[in-house]
Amino acid sequence: MDELTEAYVKWKYNFNLSDNFNEEYSFKIDAVNIYTLEKEVCIHRSENTKAAVALVSAGYLGTSPEFPSLAISLQTLELYYTLRLFKPSFSVEAFAKALCHLYSIPFHRGYRTGLSDTFDVYLAIRRRIDSQVAKELGHEGANYCVLNSCPACCYKLEDEPELEFSRMWVVDRNNSLKRMAGIGNREVSDTRIFGESDYYLSEDFVNIYAGEIKARPLACNIEDEDPDELQSDWVDEEHGDPTDGIEDSELAQCTENWKAAAADQQKKMWGIFHESGYFASACRHGFVLWVADMIRSGELAKYPLAIVAKALGVLPPRWLMGYDIGCSFGGTILRSSLGPEFAKQKCRTCVNAFHGYSHNAACQQKYHPLNILGMGLEDLETLERLFSSSNQLAPLIRYMTAYRRRVFIDIFLQQWDQEKYQNLATMLHNNYVQALNILEDEAKALQADLLAKGITIEDLETYFVEESNHLKEIGKEAEGDLHAVAYVELLQRYRELSSACDNAAADFRSQTPADYEFLASAASYSRNLSDGRRAETKRRYLREQRDKTLFEVVQMETAMSISPRWEPTDREYIETIEYMNTRKYRQALERLYKLVIQRLFELHKMNLSFTGYKMRTHISNALQRRSKAIRNAVKTYNSAAAAIGRPTLDWVKVTHYSFLDQFNVLQDTRHSILDKKWADPVVRHLMKQHRQVARAKEEIQHCNIQIRRLQTSIFDEDKKFQKVLEHLKDTSMYFPVHDFINRRRAVNQLLLSRIYQTQALPGFTGNRNPGVREGSGPPTSTSVPMNFDLPDPDSDDGEDAEDDEIVDGMGAVIEYMSNLST
């Protein structure tokens, strides 16, 4: 491989080959070249040059290392590689068919196989060169990408304000990138293991945390799920999922909803996959940190725990991790072996903004990004965007070997990070503008509304505390209430049985058969005798049940010191009946809420791009079943609500977030909330608006710090580039490194242009001068010239004018960067 890599570099950068070729060792070979469409080429080589090396030196790559029968031009392979960077769903087979069309020959599978094998070798050569370039630039190391890929997160400067969280990042799983398992005992010919990725965690490392959390069974509601569709061997009954470590009763509902929404992953069809998806993590700006394949399992706790273990060992303390079930997973971490270190480093978890609205109100107050001090305007839905894009790979990798699947995913993730870097300044600019707009519009409206209502910011904070304390009491039942309910239920059953027993005895005594005849026949007598025995058996059964129930009533009265027995007109009896109606209402609302949450999660999955036909069909069927269950739950809820004078719901209302946001308020009927100010809809809107304004102020601080970090990293990087190029002069690695630097400088020019646009905003409050990276020593110069012609921030010429301003800004940046290199 070293010889092929060296030959590729010489061909790529037009080095003069030192070897003189010998016609005796030259050979002709069938060729594929999308640019020339030649069908055969003559390859010249010397006596000591291998055929494979000679092919690469001539700009071709053979389909086999020893005796190739076909050679594909490197330009053709580079074209396919480039196309795949920006269109991940473009398959080898599609490209092979395009080549056959250009060559006017019919396609057959051999061409696809040859192209695929050759592309593997081409990728191996590129990885070897990329590794050497990274070594020369000092970008090597197991954790280099995690610690350096995102300057806004990692490039901490001296004397900058301390943030609440050192880093914000997210984890989640993706179920689309599955790979079929082998059939029976068939052996796979491609046994290679791809271990050159900067992202992938090994299966052995992940399995270290397999036994940390034990599984807890999920009770299947037969009204919601079809038990025949569950597959017991797919459900891991030993290893727990991310919610199995939680013991907090307040979060039990979130856990149950998540488990119920995840139940569809346990269907029979999923057992045919070896990799059932992948578990990923990324920083708040979208740069991928680590990923791990989910092997023949659902979303087990070992996957996020393995990533948390890496984060505790690599990232600085006080980080925050977002997860759709982050409220429960925090408890899971603390119960695992990672708990002491997690607590020592003062790290914490939270939920994502979208998924957070499906959690109960008590959970949202503590774990939703809007309510967490120091979060800014971050929604932590980064991975949803990543998964939406990576789903393009799903049709390609479904039947690939494990090696090629990882290679293609790794290429995608590398390109994703490069695009995230290119758009980083734009992302920060948009965040800054969003925060400024909130402070401009919402802050003024908040002050006006507070003045009109006669309350203050301090009052809003007090309301948050009162609401939190109130929510903690929701759903708790006093022991006396439970005993009273049980007693009244026994009384009701006793009266029902007594009435039924009296009716049965009366029927037995007074009923005359319709076909009664004096001196009836033997057949008629036998029939009447049978009817009489059945009636007597029913009377005896009801009398026994009545006596048994009466015994239980007497026991309850003795235990509760009740005397005399409650009657339907007694005050205690009436209050208990009202409480029982409230319980039915609360239980109906609880079930309705659960079904709506499952529907929301399924709809969210339904919107993912490039979801396969079978997957979409499966989800559609589940939604149809769930919709029927929701309609029935709405009817049950309306019946229970009418019994206690509560407003009923219609089908449209249960599909809106406003219903979910107010769920816990609706649920409470034991203590009146009508006289509480925080329950006033206007005040609740002001409370939310106040949090948005507070988060916007934090976002301004975040952006000021992150923009300066990015700006400083670009200047420092360019100085480093100059030193590296000077060091590599007259070496073969100069050209690959120079190629990388040129591309990077072009991107940096665009970033600087957008940075100076942001610094020109009327409300910008950050430091416009570059800083000094923490731990890098004194700066080489005390100041950096900033003679950029900034675009007019008040221009209203539309998008075209904005693009022109960016181009003009790039011209100024290019001029500045040129001055740096001279």
Automatic annotation (TrEMBL):
It comes from Lentinula lateritia. Signal peptide: none annotated. InterPro entries: KDZ. This is CxC1-like cysteine cluster associated with KDZ transposases domain-containing protein. Residues 791-805 have a biased composition (Acidic residues). Pfam families: KDZ (PF18758). It comes from the Eukaryota. Residues 763-805 are annotated as: Disordered.
